[in-house]
Design goal:
Shape: globular
Number of helices: 8
Order of helices and strands: EEEHEEEEHEHEHEHEHEEHEHE
Distance between the termini: 23 Å
Structural class: alpha/beta
CATH topology of the largest domain: Quinone Oxidoreductase, Chain A, domain 1
Number of domains: 2
Radius of gyration: 20 Å
Mean pLDDT: 94
Number of strands: 15
């Protein structure tokens, strides 16, 4: 029997006002599926890109959201390893997290260890997975390397700084205000650059005596991409994993020949395509949380019905910590 729940639905792309609070159906779980009652829902820049139309990856009308924690309420046929009452978290490239309850493919659900709270999981799962991907898979950071991290006080920036320092790297962090620079320093950054007041390319050259960085992690995109490329050492790698300032314009591959550099644009979903990879990454991230390597900053909590306010807060850059929606 089909039930109903309340959710945020996008009928057309645009501003935060396009996030509509309404009732939607919830079907019984089919084979390989579970019904989840959400307890905490993560808010990410990816969600704002979907809502604005920058990413046209959600079929409309549709429910946005790629990350949440919750409790298993019902289990479909053929599901193993999960029980009613289990606490789980997940990320879902097919969206659907901005809801009180939902049907979820069981293959996406990861059981939460007792030491990881629901709101911490909702605020750090995809950010932690992204940091793990960037530091362990896309480029395996080693002790003694120098890394550049843009938006270092942001949702992914903070875990990146903390984890890179734990791995023994020298971290150069950029941010746009004194407050955010202080956050980056508190996370362990060795050097901080206010990109609004300094030319970060010149400052990186100065800090590295002209050598450059082994890897630059750039989630900003259009306004920093070419500068990040100029910051690379010989055979250095530029990792573009976001575009908060807009998409990167086409560029000539010959620019990479200056120092035999590389550019990569990874997506975390591609690194957890099979269950073994998902479980391995989850163990790594949850272990880092339990050991204190990764820590959730102060979490801003808002009711799910106020998702539009959460998007406005995130896009204004007024929030330096994670935002979680509570059903």
């Amino acid at each position: 029997m089909t039930d109903s729940t309340r959710a945020i639905v996008i009928h057309e792309t645009g501003g935060p006002e396009k996030l509509v609070w309404e009732s939607v159906p919830v079907a019984p779980p089919g084979p390989g599926e579970v019904v989840i009652r959400h307890t905490a829902i993560g808010v990410n820049f990816h969600d704002t890109y979907v809502r604005s139309g920058l990413y046209q990856t959600l079929r409309l009308p549709g429910i946005p959201g790629i990350e949440a924690a919750g409790i298993v309420e019902r289990i479909g046929d053929g599901v193993a390893g999960l029980a009613v009452g289990d606490r789980i978290t997940y990320i879902d490239a097919s969206y659907g997290a901005y809801a009180e309850r939902r049907v979820l493919p069981a293959r996406l659900a990861v059981r939460l260890p007792p030491g990881v709270a629901d709101d911490v999981a909702a605020s750090l799962t995809i950010k932690g997975f992204t940091a793990s991907m960037l530091l362990q898979s896309v480029h395996r950071v080693r002790a003694g390397e120098t890394v550049l991290i843009h938006a270092a006080a942001g949702g992914v920036g903070q875990p990146l700084v903390r984890w890179a320092k734990h791995l023994g790297a020298t971290v150069i962090a950029t941010a746009g205000s004194a407050e955010k620079l202080a956050i980056a320093r508190d996370c362990g950054a060795d050097h901080v650059i206010n990109y609004r007041e300094e030319n970060f390319v010149d400052r990186v050259a100065q800090l590295t005596a002209g050598r450059g960085v082994d890897v630059a992690y750039d989630s900003v995109g259009a306004s920093t991409f070419l500068g990040s490329l100029q910051c690379l050492a010989f055979q250095g790698l530029l990792v573009n994993f976001g575009q908060s300032s807009g998409p990167v314009a086409p560029f000539s591959p010959s620019l990479l020949a200056t120092r035999s550099n590389g550019v990569v644009r990874p997506m975390v979903f591609h690194y957890i395509r099979d269950r073994g990879a998902l479980d391995a990454m989850a163990a790594q991230v949850f272990g880092a949380i339990e050991k204190g390597i990764l820590r959730a900053p102060t979490i801003t909590r808002l009711p799910l019905a106020q998702a539009s306010e959460a998007h406005g807060l995130l896009e204004s850059r007024r929030s330096t910590g994670p935002i979680v929606l509570e059903p």
